[in-house]
Amino acid sequence: MHDEPAHCSRCDAVCCRLTVLVMPEDRVPGHLLEHRDGLTMMARDEEGWCVALDSSRMCCGIYESRPDVCRRFEMNGPYCRSVREEYSSHRAIGIALVEY
Ligand code: SF4
Ligand code: SF4
């Protein structure tokens, strides 16, 4: 999978498993947030995905008010390709997915 160009339409929204820090200037509804070690971040479900993910379509459910860090995440950029490769390799050998 990682040899193909990454595209969100063919991806399990792997970047939405990353720790997403939320800044004061972001406009994310409070019930989607968690606070840990003095930081504010997107809460995640029991399987590790951001709680704002629309799991029926595997896309952002708060697209218009998603955090700035999500807006800047580059499709097919090095970080995108890296997390997709790691996700793919974990799935391929059937071990538990890690949270980042
Ligand atoms: S930015 Fe990359 S990791 Fe995120 S959904 Fe798109 S292809 Fe997948
Ligand atoms: S806010 Fe949206 S784009 Fe950002 S991690 Fe959550 S579901 Fe993904």
TrEMBL record:
<protein>
    <submittedName>
        <fullName>FliB domain containing protein</fullName>
    </submittedName>
</protein>
<dbReference type="Pfam" id="PF03692">
    <property type="entry name" value="CxxCxxCC"/>
</dbReference>
<dbReference type="InterPro" id="IPR005358">
    <property type="entry name" value="Puta_zinc/iron-chelating_dom"/>
</dbReference>
